[in-house]
């Protein structure tokens, strides 16, 4: 089954980036590929970009699109399985088990896209990615990750395309910097960004306060620098993101506004560009002057979400023909 859940489902990243860029130049060139097929997009959490860009990309490929805000409109889904001698007794809030729900949606759809964020209460539970595991097991069709508990591959692919388009050096320095936020946010975007950058020809540096270390399997060979000013020196791309602690799972440990990205910070870079997946809280994470200035790539990045989704969907559809 040709799932698209992480970088591990990508054989040739350069080819995938090129596929996105080709679709950008010629959006309707593969219109026949998805003809008479249906994709279902299931959202357990809010979305603007992922929902609209994936719907648009799917339509460019000729797919019919069904969208459901399962988190709001659907029956509450029980994800846990009965174990020998320990049946799951569904006498709580959840009216339907994923065994039936996934199997039923799989009857209506040829591909299922899912967004399900980390709940940030239990590290082991979140990093097990139960929702995705269960849909993979019971839907019987390819699954597309629209941001899972631990990863956001369509965002990362759009980020790769954006860096490829805007780089001015063969091997740019890319700095992933933690940004301040009062809310606890998932590690998914940061995890995924590292994982994908580790497959690109870039120098990846990660900077964050002590206590915000990401899981080592995502950081890979990236250099971790705790001094943000030092990390930013000579950067070609500054990728901002807030995440809550992984080690003190889901906690907000630091409220230090000096980690916010300002023009003064950007002046340390080598005429660097600023990137963020959005949504972004102005003047909490990034100053207006950066977002509204010529260094910001956030709109270009969001535009590339369409081409990232189209490249991923093309891979899935081509796999279905084999
Ligand atoms: N899909 C892109 C990011 C989604 C999510 N951000 C948020 O929930 C921001 C919410 C806020 O700022 O209130 C995250 O960090 O994973
Ligand atoms: N970047 C991103 O995934 O945006 P949405 O949460 O609005 O989909």
UniProtKB/TrEMBL annotation:
It catalyses: N(2)-succinyl-L-ornithine + carbamoyl phosphate = N(2)-succinyl-L-citrulline + phosphate + H(+). Residues 189-313 form the Aspartate/ornithine carbamoyltransferase Asp/Orn-binding domain. Carbamoyl phosphate binds at residues 47-50, 75, 115, 152-155, 277-278, 305. The keyword Amino-acid biosynthesis applies. It comes from the Bacteria. Pathway: Amino-acid biosynthesis; L-arginine biosynthesis. The keyword DNA-binding does not apply. It is an enzyme of class 2 (transferase). Catalyzes the transfer of the carbamoyl group from carbamoyl phosphate to the delta-amino group of N(2)-succinyl-L-ornithine to produce N(2)-succinyl-L-citrulline. Is essential for arginine biosynthesis. Belongs to the aspartate/ornithine carbamoyltransferase superfamily. SOTCase family. This is N-succinylornithine carbamoyltransferase. The gene is argF'.
């Amino acid at each position: 089954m040709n799932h698209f859940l992480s970088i591990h489902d990508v054989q040739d990243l350069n080819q995938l980036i090129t596929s996105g860029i080709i679709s950008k130049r010629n959006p309707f060139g593969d219109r026949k590929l998805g003809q008479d097929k249906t994709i279902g997009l299931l959202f357990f959490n809010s979305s603007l970009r992922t929902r609209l860009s994936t719907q648009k990309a799917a339509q460019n490929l000729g797919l019919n699109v069904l969208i459901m805000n399962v988190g709001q409109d659907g029956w509450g889904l029980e994800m846990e399985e009965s174990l020998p001698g320990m049946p799951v007794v569904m006498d709580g809030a959840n009216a339907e088990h994923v065994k039936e729900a996934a199997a039923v949606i799989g009857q209506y759809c040829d591909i299922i896209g899912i967004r399900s964020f980390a709940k940030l209460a239990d590290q082991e539970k979140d990093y097990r990615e139960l929702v995705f595991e269960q849909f993979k097991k019971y839907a019987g069709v390819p699954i597309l990750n629209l941001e899972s508990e631990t990863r956001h591959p369509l965002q990362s692919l759009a980020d790769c395309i954006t860096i490829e388009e805007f780089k001015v050096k063969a091997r740019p320095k890319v700095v992933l910097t933690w940004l301040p936020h009062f809310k606890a946010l998932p590690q998914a975007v940061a995890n995924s960004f590292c994982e994908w950058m580790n497959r690109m020809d870039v120098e990846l540096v990660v900077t964050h306060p002590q206590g915000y270390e990401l899981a080592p399997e995502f950081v890979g060979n990236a250099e971790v620098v705790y001094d943000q000013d030092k990390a930013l020196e000579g950067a070609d791309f500054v990728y901002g993101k807030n995440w809550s602690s992984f080690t003190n799972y889901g906690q907000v440990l630091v409220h230090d506004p000096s980690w916010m990205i300002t023009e003064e910070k950007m002046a340390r870079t080598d005429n660097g560009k600023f990137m963020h997946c959005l949504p972004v809280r102005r003047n909490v994470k990034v100053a207006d002057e950066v977002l509204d200035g010529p260094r910001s790539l956030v709109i270009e990045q969001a535009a590339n979400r369409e081409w990232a989704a189209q490249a991923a969907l093309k891979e899935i559809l081509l796999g279905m023909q084999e």
